[in-house]
Specification:
By secondary structure, the chain is mostly helical. It folds into two domains: about 5-60, no CATH class; about 85-200. It is built from eight helices and seven strands, in the order ββαααβββαβααβαα. It has helices at about 20-25, 30-40, 45-60, 85-100, 115, 130-140, 155-160, 175-190; strands at about 5, 10-15, 65, 65-70, 75, 105-110, 150. A three-stranded antiparallel sheet has the order 3-4-5, with helices on one face. Strand 4 (about 65-70) and strand 5 (about 75) form a beta hairpin.
Length: about 200
C-alpha cells in the first residue's frame, strides 16, 4: 500500500520508511524509526483504530491512552502527575528572566487544562490526578519578586464553561476561550480589551 505521510484523525505526521545508514543502525535510531514506521504504516491502520475506539465505547471504558471519553463527544486529556523538579526549574528560569529585565513588570498566565474546567463533561468516577487550582499557589509561592503578577483565568473560564471554549477533540482552548483569557489579562495589565465584535474572523 502507498505510504501515508499525515494522519487527519491524529493531527500528526506519520513515520515514513527511514533511510539506512550504519551510524543510525549502531546507534539504535534506525530500529526505533523502523518500529514507528511499521506501526504508522500498518495496513488499514485508521480503520483498526476506529474499531478499537468503538469497542471501548461499547464496553463503557472511561479513558483510552490517557484521554477521558467525556460527554457530548469531548475527549479530555488526563492531567499528568505534577513534576515538582520541572516546576522548580521553570520558576527559577522565570525569576532569572525577571531579574534580567528589571524594572519591567512581568505577568504570568497559567492556562488550565480542559479537564479542570469542563468537570461536568467527565465520565462517571473520573478523578483528575492533579488540579490546576492546586498548582496556582505553588507557582505564586515561588515568585522571587512582587513584580511578577499571576493572571488567574481559572474562574473566568469556569464562568463560561457552557460555551464552546475548548475543542471537543483537542486539549487546546478555542478562539473564544482564548478571548476570555485575553479579557482577564487586559483587566490585570491595565489596558482596555477589544470587543469581540471588533475582531475580524478569517477562515
Amino acid at each position: 500500500m502507498p505510504e501515508q505521510t499525515f494522519s487527519d484523525a491524529e493531527n500528526r505526521m506519520l513515520q515514513t520508511k527511514p533511510d539506512f545508514s550504519w551510524e543510525r543502525l549502531f546507534s539504535g535510531k534506525l530500529t526505533e524509526a523502523y518500529e514507528s514506521y511499521l506501526s504508522d504504516q500498518f495496513p488499514l491502520r485508521e480503520t483498526w483504530i476506529a474499531i478499537k475506539s468503538a469497542s471501548e465505547l461499547i464496553l463503557q471504558k472511561k479513558d483510552d491512552n490517557g484521554v477521558f471519553l467525556g460527554k457530548d463527544g469531548y475527549l479530555l486529556q488526563k492531567p499528568e502527575k505534577l513534576d515538582r523538579a520541572l516546576l522548580e526549574r521553570n520558576m527559577e528560569a522565570l525569576n532569572c528572566f525577571c531579574e534580567r529585565i528589571h524594572p519591567v513588570p512581568v505577568y504570568f498566565l497559567l492556562a488550565p487544562n480542559a479537564v479542570h474546567i469542563l468537570v461536568d463533561r467527565l465520565p462517571p468516577f473520573a478523578a483528575a490526578a492533579t488540579d490546576t487550582a492546586d498548582i496556582r499557589p505553588l507557582v505564586a509561592g515561588r515568585f522571587s519578586t512582587t513584580r511578577i503578577t499571576l493572571i488567574d483565568v481559572y474562574q473566568t473560564l469556569t464562568a463560561h464553561k457552557e460555551e464552546y471554549i475548548y475543542y471537543r477533540t483537542d486539549h487546546h482552548w478555542t478562539t473564544k476561550g482564548a478571548y476570555y483569557a485575553y479579557q482577564k489579562a487586559a483587566e490585570q495589565m491595565g489596558f482596555e480589551a477589544l470587543d469581540l465584535n471588533d475582531l475580524k474572523l478569517r477562515k
